Amino acid sequence: MAKKPSAKARKAAEEAVRQSKLDEKYGKPLFSLTYDMNEYELARAANLYGPDRMKDLFNGAAILSLALLIFVLVTMGDKVALTIILLVVAVITSTITTNWSRFATFLARKSTLGLVGENNRHHIVVTEDKLVEEGPDDRVVEYPLSELRHSRSSDEATVVDFGNKRCVYIPRAPMSEGRYQALVRFLLDHEPKKDKR
Fold first, then answer.
1. Distance between CA 168 and CA 25 in Å, rounded?
2. DSSP characters for 96-156?
3. Nearest Cα to 18, choosing from 42, 40, 34?
4. Contact residues for 90 (Cβ-Cβ < 8 A; gap 6+)
5. Cα of 3 vs its chain's centroid, Å
6. Residue 102 contacts by C-beta under 8 Å, 6 or more apart in sequence?
7. pLDDT of 132-175, one tens digit each?
8. How many CA atoms lie within 13 A of 171 on its CB side?
9. Beta-ladder partners of 142
10. pLDDT tens digits for range 58-106
């Protein structure tokens, strides 16, 4: 005699069927997932959101300002105002690079990745031409894939950037590895092509 599914398994299956019917209102869904955004997930998103290029710029500015500070002290020791300005720039840029994860989390909170209220359940639907995010407080945002700027991925998550601080976080955990990799390839295919001149 076959075992009856547990109440939890039955409820999960019913929820999956209900959600798939809801997803169809956006068109034919290619990918669909639901997750809860929390501080841990926000930290993961921040690591992908804060661009490495920006960190490299701050590192370069810190090194350059320190080199200029030493040069000014050695050659023009009497220029106090210039010395103070270079010292302030060096301290600020080195502080930002030292605390990069905090700075990236601050930037992520200012974008659409930030936490909203108590209920932070997100549902993501990806169709051929758009990405739909159902967020907290019944917020629904549709992002046309034609506006996709870039996506940054790791083994654990992807952040899709549509510009103007409009980003969508997609964790790998709610999906199988194969589906996640297919989603990453799909997003990469929809990124604007860079001109090679």
1. 20
2. HHHTHHHHHHHHHHHTTTS--SS--EEEEEE-SSEEEEE-GGG-EEEEEGGG--EEEE-SS
3. 34
4. 62, 65, 66, 69
5. 43
6. none
7. 998 887 889 999 999 999 999 999 999 999 999 899 999 999 99
8. 18
9. 132
10. 899 999 999 999 999 899 878 889 889 999 999 999 998 899 888 888 9
- Residue 18 in tokens: 């209900």
Q: Which amino acid is at 150?
A: H
Q: Under a CB-based contact definition with an 8 Å cutoff, are residues 110 and 103 in contact?
A: no
Angle between helices 52-75 and 80-98 (to 10 degrees): 150
Name residues whose C-beta falls within 8 Å of residue 92's C-beta, 6 or more positions apart in sequence.
none
CA–CA gap between residue 93 and residue 100 (Å, rounded): 10
Percent of the chain as helix, strand, coil, to the nearest 5: 55, 20, 30
Q: How many residues does the chain have?
A: 197
